[in-house]
């Protein structure tokens, strides 16, 4: 049963247009968090801030006034957009998301609606323009991250405005927000979509009609524009999914530093996972503490995302001078090295309805199923179980060198599924997760049933 909603989902089911299909096929993306918080690098006057570096302004030890003047020192003389884009290209990213404005309100483009922008730093030049141009040139689609929270803008409120004066100020803030979004879409016409954040404030959740109108306005301005589920709430304050449980926006945007456990968790929707390299640092923090993910971990998350029909977006936090830190450069290289050999199992691939196996993940494109092996069984046998009436294995081989892999037919089980073992040659050695391609045809059988 469904209740009538004025401001719920505008569409049921996935988008079917070419722009969204392209997004869906990306598989791997890059996130970049860059702003004046990169100057502080998670420290103030030598003191370590244990939170996420881009949140340092909210720290009690951080004088707000000092933070709001950091921009006067923002001069990223080492910044080279072409180099960033080349690195992302090598890693295998097909799209990137750049923070145009984080919660602190600092704009990396020269917005004409505030003075708190790159234009008034010693650097002066439009960072967003350089980034968009460089990534466009590499053929990497650009998406604009935009925070609705804006700690710098005077009319901004987190709580619902109460006084008449506050209400007027908040109305101005809403217009300011709209102006900036229209400005971004007008001035950066190649950007493919918007990635919203900071939309959980009570004040914003209440702006149901305004946000819905604004979303429609942005979409009308730019046919094909892609916006996730984090922009607006429905009239009952429901976010991401409306009061009927239907996804609002083009893809589910709730997987932040988290992955679905199984395909059941994503309900047939498009989704992205945005992931940090340390546990929770997006902007540059000069002192990473705690566990730092390895390229093995990240490739696992990438393949796992694609195996459940999602995109995996890995975050980078360049420093205040514009350098991507060596740890991140190394990981980008390692992921890129892996992608050089194995990206066929990623791009354009989707979920396969086969029983999950412990050795790794299935992905599929056309008549090829890719088995990406992370946990090689001691007996070198990869188990495969295909339900009755399912696809039929034709041949198997390594993606890297096309060397054949034997398929042993292992009969049927109680549920009448066909069982197979793919046999990894004992002398095959790999220091990396590896991919076996299984070519399939549609089943013609169901004759040789379980006896
Ligand atoms: O930009 C990165 C983070 O800075 C930002 N999103 C990523 C992409 C982010 N901001 N906050 N969070 C992530 C965590 C959110 C915490 C919340 Fe809450 C808990 C939001 C609502 C409940 C903290 C407590 C903020 C408001 C109340």
Strand and helix layout:
Elements: H1 18-26, E1 28-32, H2 37-40, E2 43-44, E3 47-48, H3 64-68, H4 81-91, E4 95-101, H5 127-137, E5 141-147, H6 164-187, E6 193-197, H7 202-205, H8 208-221, E7 226-227, E8 252-256, E9 271-275, H9 295-307, E10 310-316, H10 326-342, E11 360-365, E12 368-373, E13 381-386, E14 392-398, E15 404-412, E16 418-423, E17 434-441
Parallel strand pairs: 1-4, 1-10, 4-5, 5-6, 6-7, 8-9, 9-10
Antiparallel strand pairs: 2-3, 11-12, 12-17, 13-16, 14-15, 14-17, 15-16
Helix pairs in contact: 4-5, 4-10, 6-8, 9-10
Bound molecules: ligand H79.
Residues 33, 52, 54-55, 197, 200, 256, 274, 282 line the site of ligand H79.
Textual characterization of the structure:
With 451 residues, the chain is α/β, with parallel strands linked by helices. It has two domains: 18-345, Glycosidases (TIM Barrel, Alpha-Beta Barrel), CATH 3.20.20; 360-441, Golgi alpha-mannosidase II (Immunoglobulin-like, Sandwich). It has ten helices and 17 strands. The protein has helices spanning 18-26, 37-40, 64-68, 81-91, 127-137, 164-187, 202-205, 208-221, 295-307, 326-342, and strands at 28-32, 43-44, 47-48, 95-101, 141-147, 193-197, 226-227, 252-256, 271-275, 310-316, 360-365, 368-373, 381-386, 392-398, 404-412, 418-423, 434-441. The chain has an eight-stranded parallel beta sheet, with helices on both faces. A seven-stranded antiparallel beta sheet has the order 11-12-17-14-15-16-13, covered by helices on one side. Strand 14 and strand 15 (404-412) form a beta hairpin. Helix 4 (81-91) crosses helix 5, helix 6 runs parallel beside helix 8 (208-221) and helix 9 crosses helix 10 (326-342). 41% of the residues are buried. It binds ligand H79. Ligand H79 binds at residues 33, 52, 54-55, 197, 200, 256, 274, 282. One of its GO terms (molecular function) is alpha-L-fucosidase activity. Its EC number is 3.2.1.51. Pfam families: Alpha_L_fucos. One of its GO terms (biological process) is glycoside catabolic process. Keywords: Glycosidase, Hydrolase, Signal.
């Amino acid at each position: 049963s469904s209740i009538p909603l004025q401001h719920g989902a505008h569409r049921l089911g996935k988008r079917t247009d070419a722009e969204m299909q392209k997004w869906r096929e990306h598989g791997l993306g890059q996130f970049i968090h860059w702003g004046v918080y990169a100057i502080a690098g998670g420290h103030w006057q030598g003191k370590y801030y244990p939170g996420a570096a881009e949140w340092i302004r909210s720290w009690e030890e951080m004088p707000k006034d000092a933070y709001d003047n950091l921009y006067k020192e923002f001069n990223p003389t080492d910044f080279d957009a072409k180099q960033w884009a080349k690195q992302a290209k090598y890693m295998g990213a097909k799209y990137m998301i750049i923070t145009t404005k984080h919660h602190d309100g600092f704009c990396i483009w020269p917005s004409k609606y505030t003075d708190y922008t790159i234009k008034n730093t010693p650097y002066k030049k439009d960072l967003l323009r350089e980034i968009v141009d460089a990534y466009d040139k590499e053929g990497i689609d650009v998406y604009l991250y935009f925070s609705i929270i804006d700690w710098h803008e005077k009319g901004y409120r987190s709580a619902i405005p109460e006084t008449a004066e506050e209400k007027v100020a908040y109305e101005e803030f809403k217009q300011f927000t709209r102006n900036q979004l229209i400005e971004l879409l007008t001035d950066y016409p190649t950007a493919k979509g918007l990635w919203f954040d900071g939309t959980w404030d009570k004040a914003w959740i209440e702006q149901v009609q305004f946000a819905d109108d604004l979303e429609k306005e942005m979409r009308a301005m730019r046919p094909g524009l892609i916006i996730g589920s984090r922009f607006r709430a429905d009239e009952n304050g429901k976010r991401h999914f409306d009061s009927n449980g239907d996804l609002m926006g083009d893809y589910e945007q709730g997987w932040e530093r988290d992955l679905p456990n199984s395909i059941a968790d994503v309900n047939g929707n498009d989704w992205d996972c945005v992931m940090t390299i340390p546990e929770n640092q997006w902007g540059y923090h000069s002192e990473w503490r705690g566990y730092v993910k390895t390229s093995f971990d990240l490739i696992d998350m990438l393949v796992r995302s694609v195996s459940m029909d999602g995109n995996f977006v890995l975050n980078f936090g360049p420093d205040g001078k514009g350098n991507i830190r060596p740890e991140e450069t190394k990981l980008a290289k390692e992921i890129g090295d892996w992608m050089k050999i194995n990206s066929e199992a990623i791009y354009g691939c989707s979920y396969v309805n086969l029983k999950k196996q412990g050795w790794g993940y299935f992905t599929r494109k056309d008549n090829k199923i890719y088995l990406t092996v992370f946990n090689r069984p001691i007996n070198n046998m990869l188990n495969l179980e295909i339900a009755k009436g399912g696809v039929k294995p034709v041949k198997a081989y390594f993606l890297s060198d096309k060397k054949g892999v034997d398929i042993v037919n292992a009969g049927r089980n109680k549920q009448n599924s066909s069982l197979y073992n793919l046999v990894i040659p004992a002398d095959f050695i790999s220091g990396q997760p590896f991919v076996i391609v299984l070519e399939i045809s549609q089943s013609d059988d169901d004759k040789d049933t379980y006896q």
